[in-house]
């Protein structure tokens, strides 16, 4: 995610020697997709290799014209993430990019000092990890285990920081940009007191990031060992999920056979009836922690100038946000009822 974020230096007028001197030394994009993934990207994402760089330049021009102070990276590889996530629809890709920055700038508890070493306790707890093997569709499986979190040790925002960094690391892969990811969430042992930390503010923020503020394709969310309390949580959150995302939630309860219909046992650890050995979190933790300098370099470019205030950042209006707040405010009484 390297590159100059100054739009005045990214679109010089043609033919001027002085302008050419101002061109940033931008890394040249080299496609790492296999022939099969190139075909998949063409069929599913409307990505045409012969037009790819033209599309990236079009998005770059839109950023510089409409959001010159956004402070974003403008490298080909970085902008491609947003185009792929929105099937090369320029307007939707631009909105996603703007939302990505808005989310980062409006939630300092999550995004300040965001680096792997800062969330090491979360990683060591095993709250979030990535399974070592991809599924048959080439998708990484992100495993989240809320029971590994002890609220008295650190706030829930630390968990969100760990999940976010995990997604940032995964989306660096072009293969993941095309194939997307699968989430496996194990809610075994989640109590009412622990669930209450996921309040209206946190719920709305997380939904906003996952749906409209991050360039990743979430293809399925598999919930395992969910207690009755989860049905109450999901019933409240579901109206604010887009229909496509809501339809990708699968509640398996304690039925491992049901889980195995979505995620094959061959890639699952023994804890979930699989044959891939014990769940090992060390490999992913080491990979993420080894990326410290890369993250520091990348995130250092995503800084909003102090005199700038991007407008029209979020796709949902004030009325929708108020409705979300009012509905989610009733979460706790309903949780007690479900519990």
UniProtKB/TrEMBL annotation:
<feature type="domain" description="CRAL-TRIO">
    <location>
        <begin position="115"/>
        <end position="280"/>
    </location>
</feature>
<dbReference type="InterPro" id="IPR036273">
    <property type="entry name" value="CRAL/TRIO_N_dom_sf"/>
</dbReference>
<feature type="region of interest" description="Disordered">
    <location>
        <begin position="1"/>
        <end position="27"/>
    </location>
</feature>
<dbReference type="InterPro" id="IPR036865">
    <property type="entry name" value="CRAL-TRIO_dom_sf"/>
</dbReference>
<dbReference type="GO" id="GO:0016020">
    <property type="term" value="C:membrane"/>
</dbReference>
<feature type="compositionally biased region" description="Polar residues">
    <location>
        <begin position="8"/>
        <end position="19"/>
    </location>
</feature>
<dbReference type="GO" id="GO:1902936">
    <property type="term" value="F:phosphatidylinositol bisphosphate binding"/>
</dbReference>
<dbReference type="InterPro" id="IPR011074">
    <property type="entry name" value="CRAL/TRIO_N_dom"/>
</dbReference>
<dbReference type="InterPro" id="IPR001251">
    <property type="entry name" value="CRAL-TRIO_dom"/>
</dbReference>
<dbReference type="Pfam" id="PF03765">
    <property type="entry name" value="CRAL_TRIO_N"/>
</dbReference>
<protein>
    <submittedName>
        <fullName>TTPAL protein</fullName>
    </submittedName>
</protein>
<dbReference type="Pfam" id="PF00650">
    <property type="entry name" value="CRAL_TRIO"/>
</dbReference>
